[in-house]
Amino acid sequence: MSSSNNARDNGDERAGTTGNPRRADAPPARPTLTVGIVGHAFMGNAHSHAWRTAPRFFDLPLRPERAVLVGRDAYRASQAARRLGWAAAETDWRRMIERDDIDLVDICTPGDTHAEIAVAALDAGKHVLCEKPLANSVAEAEAMAEAAARAAARGIRSMVGFTYRRVPAVVLAHRMIAEGRIGRIHHVRAQYLQDWLADPDVPMSWRLEKDRAGSGALGDIGAHIVDLTRYITGEELTGVSALLQTFVRERPLPATASGPATGGSLTGTGGDGTGEVTVDDATVFIGRLEGGALATFEATRFALGRKNALRIEINGSLGSLAFDFEDMNVLQFFDGSEPAATAGFRRILVTEPEHPYVSAWWPAGHGLGYEHGFTHQVVDLIEAIAADEDPVPSFADGLQVQRVLDAVERSAAADGSWTRIPR
């Protein structure tokens, strides 16, 4: 944090934000972490909500201050800043990075801009939170990981935004496997199923352009199940055999066109004609974990009826665990030591105060939602920065996921041939 930030009052309600003097017994003001965000569409909205909410529910060592929002269009950026609670708007992320009072840069743009913004911010001494996938290529991800390593030597921290790691039920699954509750892992089955592209009349967007998005379902949602497999099992994938498929090759151009800076705009030329889809609509691949377990993966945006079905099941020598994000407050657990006459999957409602993150929220049984993962991400990042520790998942984690995605694409291009994943 800049020295000016450290001297700033944290605006705690107990300090009297209406101008009343601070009570003599009130705790001292906490240092401020001044944040700038690049992008204000889907992910920009989710991240903005998290920066606002985290200090209101969690006792944080630093108080985040939403200083500036960056978007390509000045009017839209100013409107977004006002709506989302950012103090100012800017149209050039470089000018935001040049500001001495900015401590952290939050990147919520398409993948083709991640590397340039992240490396510049880290080299300028700013902490960085970057949306997933980390980059559009292994080379870009390597450059980002190298910049993160250089910055870490100076106490500058970085994190990649795999927010499903912050779902309490997922954290519980990770802990149970680390404790040996299901024994040696034999199988992993991971799916991420959506249907928002099943209609061929859905218009073109940047997510369907390889030079902007890097890949389609593979990077957009497949990256999540790759990362969750690594996180929950604690093991790396060693190789894959894969197929990619594009079902709709051309789509109508949207009626509204704008440029690349905001991270959520559609592309096109005013609604006339069609555009070429240059990414995958779906992928399936098999893999092997370093401990010998077999894994299957499926990511598609063409599974009619499935809205956000991120599912993962792990079978071990002593039991099994299963999770489905469409029932996100529940973890299914099978204990293989129980008598066959009464054995079965047990439904664990992960809403007790003993469960990860939950004590800051609602009474038991009052479930959490999609947005809470982003809030927990902010909490973990702030705590790591305050403790002068590297947060996880790191840019090195993001690089390893990128290597898996790259291996999937290379395997699919070679008719599914077995492709090893470098470490």
Automatic annotation (TrEMBL):
Residues 1-31, 254-273 are annotated as: Disordered. InterPro entries: Gfo/Idh/MocA-like_OxRdtase_N, Gfo/Idh/MocA_oxidrdct_glycsds, GFO_IDH_MocA-like_dom, NAD(P)-bd_dom_sf. Transmembrane segments: none annotated. Keywords: Oxidoreductase. It holds the Pfam family GFO_IDH_MocA_C3. Residues 172-321 form the GFO/IDH/MocA-like oxidoreductase domain. Residues 261-273 have a biased composition (Gly residues). Residues 34-152 form the Gfo/Idh/MocA-like oxidoreductase N-terminal domain. It comes from the Bacteria. Gene3D superfamilies: Dihydrodipicolinate Reductase, domain 2, NAD(P)-binding Rossmann-like Domain. This is Oxidoreductase. It comes from Streptomyces graminofaciens.
